[in-house]
Design brief:
Structural class: mainly alpha
Shape: globular
Helix content: 40-55%
Number of strands: 4
CATH architecture: Orthogonal Bundle
Order of helices and strands: HEEHHEEHHH
Number of helices: 6
CATH class: Mainly Alpha
Radius of gyration: 17 Å
Strand content: 5-15%
CATH superfamily: Ribosomal protein S7/S5
Number of domains: 1
Largest sheet: 2 strands, antiparallel
CATH topology: Ribosomal Protein S7
Distance between the termini: 54 Å
């Protein structure tokens, strides 16, 4: 039987998602090239069937906005899938080099660590707005974490010495170790603290 490996280098077999809430939303099928060509587009919750590394690549191409303003764009932030895949492969190589572990497993663990459990919404009552703590839906937990990771990596590399791949590898390693230097971990802590104070 042929062992199918991601980028022909790392296997997804045997990687376990320990967070019960995220189990259905972190997909790890055996593939070589993480590009599905929008096979699931238009279907409800289609993102859940896409390989989690492909979702990271997609998020790298368009990282979303902060406070209604689109994030800094650069030559790396172009919507080009091949460039995004190259950045992720290089980042995973750096992670594998530093941890001596399967980088896909390290990335999945980092996602679990950085996924926020609570956030706040604004409720309008009698002309006044009040913050209210709510639980985050599982698929949104994954979406937010990918966004915070990629935005944090862009912030660290834009106009600075580290390359995008180095910044992404550092972000994954920091989230894996629950280090507050990770933009995703810092944002998760902030969200959960705000939710706690608005009870």
């Amino acid at each position: 039987m042929v062992d199918i490996k991601l980028f022909n280098r790392w296997s997804s077999d045997g990687i376990e998602v320990r967070d019960a809430g995220l189990k259905r939303y972190i997909s790890l099928p055996s593939i070589v090239v993480p590009r599905s060509g929008s096979r699931y587009a238009g279907n409800r919750f289609h993102k859940s069937y896409v390989h989690i590394v492909e979702r990271l690549i997609n998020k790298l191409m368009v990282t979303g906005h902060r406070s209604k303003k689109h994030f800094i764009t650069s030559g790396l932030h172009t919507g080009k899938g091949v460039k995004g895949a190259g950045i992720v492969e290089e980042a995973f190589s750096l992670v594998a080099e530093k941890t001596k572990q399967n980088p896909v497993a390290v990335f999945v663990k980092a996602l679990e660590n950085a996924a926020p459990r609570e956030e706040i919404i604004a409720i309008e009552y009698g002309g006044a707005r009040y913050p209210k703590a709510v639980e985050v839906a599982p698929q949104r937990r994954v979406d937010l974490t990918l966004r915070y990771m990629t935005q944090g990596a862009f912030q660290r590399s834009f106009g600075k010495k580290p390359t995008m791949a180095q910044a992404l590898a550092d972000e994954i390693l920091a989230a894996y170790g629950n280090d507050p230097k990770s933009a995703a971990i810092a944002k998760k802590t902030e969200l959960e603290r705000q939710a706690d104070s608005s009870r």
